[in-house]
Write a structure and sequence with these properties.
Shape: globular
InterPro entries: NTF2-like_dom_sf, SnoaL-like
Number of strands: 8
CATH architecture: Roll
Strand order of the largest sheet: 2-1-8-7-4-3
Radius of gyration: 17 Å
Protein name: Ester cyclase
Number of helices: 5
Strand content: 35-45%
Domain SnoaL-like: 15-121
Number of domains: 1
Order of helices and strands: HHEEHEEEEEEHH
Helix content: 25-40%
Pfam family, one: SnoaL_2
Structural class: alpha+beta
CATH topology: Nuclear Transport Factor 2, Chain: A
């Protein structure tokens, strides 16, 4: 049996698909003070930033799709196991600059936690495997540089 909370979350995923992409509709599912947290990257989006975050991701992956593997509603909490999929066709922002389009496909394991209040999304925590995402774009971590920097700073053990 599908719960009201699960229906709301499934609608949020539908509105975030590349072939639908309805940022204002997605935002309308949130409480006035609701937040969208990209946990691995330490980013929090509120208010009008929420649809902008969707649009930014869709500009890098216009065919973005979320393949839902499991949806588990427990009252006002919905836990989802999924894969974020798409083709890298636009610039992808990083702290070091933008990764230009590579044409590579991504298939990123993710877990999302949705917390609802009075039929609206209060908090959406997205735990995507950012390391997998970047590796699939060809931006694997540069461990050698990190080791050299630590050694130069005298912090190696």
């Amino acid at each position: 049996m599908t719960t009201k909370s699960e229906e709301i979350v499934r609608e949020a995923y539908r509105l975030a698909e590349g072939d639908v992409l309805d940022g204002p509709g997605f935002r309308a599912l949130f409480t006035e003070d609701g937040t969208f947290n990209d946990v691995p990257n330490g980013l929090t989006f509120r208010g009008d930033q929420i649809p902008q975050a969707l649009a930014g991701l869709a500009s890098a992956f216009p065919d973005i799709h979320r393949e839902l593997a499991g949806v588990h509603a427990m009252g006002d909490v919905v836990a989802v196991e999924l894969r974020i999929q798409g083709t890298h066709r636009g610039g992808f922002p990083t702290s070091a600059g933008e990764i230009p389009p590579t044409g590579r496909r991504i298939d990123v394991p993710t877990a999302d936690l949705w917390y609802l209040r009075a039929g609206k999304i209060e908090t959406f925590n997205c735990y995507n495997a950012a390391n997998v995402w970047l590796a699939q774009l060809g931006a694997a971590p540069d461990f050698a540089s990190a080791i050299r920097a630590a050694q130069a700073a005298g912090t190696s053990a």
